[in-house]
Specification:
This protein has 16 helices and 25 strands. Strand 16, helix 8 (249-258) and strand 17 form a beta-alpha-beta unit.
Length: 457
């Protein structure tokens, strides 16, 4: 099966599979989803869940995850719907103190300002009473005036505060039920366009039980493309990095079973090296090394992991200081040796025979990786992006978040070109793609199952 690209125009969503265009009805059959294109939106208030989690310290890092939801917004407005938008920003819930910390650095204000410039529509962010420890307890009745103005077209849209500021968003009990009922009372229709927000929270999952619910255009697009990752043209090469090994065991095992070749980076790679060569590397937990031994054993039999031999060792994680970092070689590893922090892959690793051959011969490449400890150590990631781009035949899938931010900051021209290149697809949620790979089915996501159950009801 040849790789396929999925496209969504305003009011039309379709996939191109081996040259055959699938119209909305076909996508519906393929995805078994209630689609935005099927919804009656005229004079309806539409509660739209998006993944606009692009703000850090009050500033937008990369507007891509906002831009890819614009077609859904235009579609809703053009067909007579009135928008109430919601998204989470950051992680305001402190697991240690079990409190919600409300900070302007994690507000939706920067996103709203961007949307108003982009769409020339006035959005209003309602203000609700906050508590010291539980965030916002309720959507109070003051919002009713705004909803009335929205229906009467006195304002262009409402953008709710950060959903994770609400006590009910991640709750399991009474606060959750109250919050969901309050959300449902605002609107006539729910649209989920937040592929990157796969956790079954109030605003992504439970709300589907109370309103007619549909998949937005971005959601459809990403679900189509993740199918191509699950059924890739071969050879299929995946590049995966991460800061913790134990959280990646499930998807990493599934990826290993799927790919022809696997390239590892970051702490995941450091952990693998410790397990294979019996060395110690700063920042790698002994418990993770034990877990990684299973992968080492499996690879001795199947030989899928392509090792990058030239690595960058640093004495510190505080920065890149002359005389405190150096290139080392995996070929010199011996049991019992101890290394400080391995913080990057030397670019020459991507020019070595095995790595270069794997990436140049690939027909499908999936990337969810930042190779170095950014922002100080970036050369390995930069070289990786260049080598991947030099393969003109491969379908290239980049997992969102840090992967896209690094891609944009290191290669802004290439990044911009990739947005319009049919050989590239940039996912908004890299973690969601890994979750789908682990499940083996995009329909296995709880948020997607909620939409399908809504259709059945």
């Amino acid at each position: 099966m040849a790789p396929y690209t999925c496209e969504n125009g305003i009011g039309v969503g379709y996939c191109v599979d081996d040259g055959r265009e699938l119209q909305a009805s076909d996508v519906n059959t393929k995805l078994q989803l209630p689609l935005l294109q099927e919804a009656d939106l005229k004079d309806k208030v539409v509660l739209l869940r998006v993944d606009h989690n692009v703000v850090k310290k009050g500033k937008i890092l990369d507007q891509y995850r906002i831009d890819v939801t614009l077609p859904t917004m235009y579609n809703i407005v053009e067909r007579g719907g009135r928008l109430i938008i919601m998204s989470h920003i950051g992680r305001p819930y402190d697991k240690k103190t079990k409190t919600i910390n409300i900070s302007e650095d994690e507000s939706v204000d920067a996103v709203v300002a961007y949307l108003q410039r982009k769409m020339r529509i006035r959005f209003v962010v309602p203000k609700f009473r906050t508590t010291d420890k539980e965030g916002i307890l309720d959507i109070d009745t003051s919002i009713n005036w705004l909803v009335k103005d929205l229906r009467n077209r006195k304002i262009g849209g409402i953008y709710l505060p950060n959903t994770r500021w609400f006590a009910g968003e991640e709750d399991k009990g009474e606060k959750l039920e109250r919050f969901v009922m309050q959300l449902a009372g605002l609107a006539d229709v729910f649209v989920n366009d937040a592929f990157g927000s796969w956790q079954p929270h109030a605003s992504t999952y439970h709300i589907s039980k109370y309103l007619p619910s549909y998949a937005g255009l971005c959601m459809q697009d990403e679900l189509c493309h993740v199918e191509a990752v699950l059924t890739p043209s071969r050879p299929f090469v995946a590049i995966v990095a991460g800061a913790k090994y134990d959280t990646k065991i499930g998807p990493l095992t599934k990826i290993y079973n799927t790919v022809d070749k696997l390239v590892l980076g970051g702490v995941i790679y450091n952990t693998y090296l410790c397990a294979k060569y019996g060395v110690k590397i700063g920042g790698v937990q002994d418990s993770d090394i034990e877990l990684a031994k299973e992968l080492v054993k499996k690879d001795r039999e199947q030989n899928k992991i392509v090792e990058m031999n030239a690595l960058v060792e640093s004495d510190t994680l505080e920065g890149k200081f002359e005389g405190q970092y150096r290139t080392i070689n995996v070929k010199d590893f011996a049991p019992g040796q101890t290394y400080k922090y391995i913080v990057d892959v030397d670019p020459v690793s991507f020019e070595s025979g095995d790595v270069m051959e794997a990436l140049n011969s690939a027909k499908t490449i999936f990337v969810n990786a930042v190779m170095g400890f950014m922002p100080h150590f970036w050369h390995g990631t930069s070289k990786m992006d260049e080598v991947i781009d030099n393969n003109p035949h491969a379908q290239k899938f980049f997992g969102g978040g840090d992967t896209l931010q690094a891609f944009k900051s290191l290669h802004p021209v290439l990044y911009q070109a990739a947005l319009d290149n049919v050989n590239y697809y940039l996912f908004t949620g890299g973690g969601t793609v890994l979750k789908v790979i682990e499940e083996g089915d995009p329909m296995g996501l709880e948020t997607v199952k909620a939409l399908m159950q809504s259709k059945e009801n």
